[in-house]
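Appendix B. Chain record.
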Amino acid sequence: MKKKDNGKQKQWSGRDSKYINAALFVLPAVLLVTVFLVYPIILSFKYSFTDWNGVSEEYHLIGLENYRNVIASSEFKTLFSNTFYLIILYVPVLNIMAILFAVIIYDIGRAANFYKVVLFLPNIVSMVVVGFIWRTIYNPATGPLVYLLEKMGMENLIQDWLGQKQTVMPALSAAIVWFAVGFYVLIYLGGLSTVPEELYEAAAVDGINWWQKLWRITLPLIVQSVTINIIVSTIAILTLFDLPYVLTQGGPGYASQTMALMSYQYAFKAMSQGKAMAMAVMLTLITVVFAVAELFVLNRKSSD
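Structure tokens predicted for this chain:
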């Protein structure tokens, strides 16, 4: 009996040591996530119910007052419409361009790596640098875009693209697409690499053209990549801060203001951390709702 017990103890001690080793490997990552992600989220939620100004040690609980003030503010409707405008304009345009670029690059062959590098190159540049690049491009006096339009005899199109409410959001979207499209192209290329070549060969024998091949074969088989890219691009646009901050500071007026940028201005210009945290919590909830809704719709379509 003792020998059997010793065998069981050795067996369990071996299993325990394996689990302990695994836990020790995971523990640093868990601590980092807890300290730098979970704990700040909890604090943000807590301070959203206070009148803390971000400096003093004293603050008071004021319930939902910050949320009511944010929603009732004159700029909130504009922020909300700007966010939805960017989602409607940016997400479809970005993903359509990324799919087309990915399909074209996939069919090129040897030169594909060169085009991958060219498209992905903006992603290795800081978003702040991207902002300064596009401020230079859009400069209505000396920008390269002005020079190009003059050479093409299209002077009537020259205007202050970042200084007018009608043009600032399309101009901002163009800069974001230029920066981000390479990343999404790589994800689509990964999806295309899983499509069996035999299907394309059979399609060529049947005389299917390029558009039919894309619509009937490629898109249904890379639906997982489409789902990932739509959700990631939606989250990216909802939390957009640095590019509008560098390009326009949210102007003119609130024409290019985003919810993330407004949260920053509440925190560091209005010195109202409570309202800033309330805006951040609302932005988080909106992002989660959008992501879950898109995941549900796209998964349902793919299963059909």
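Further analysis of this model is presented in Appendix C.
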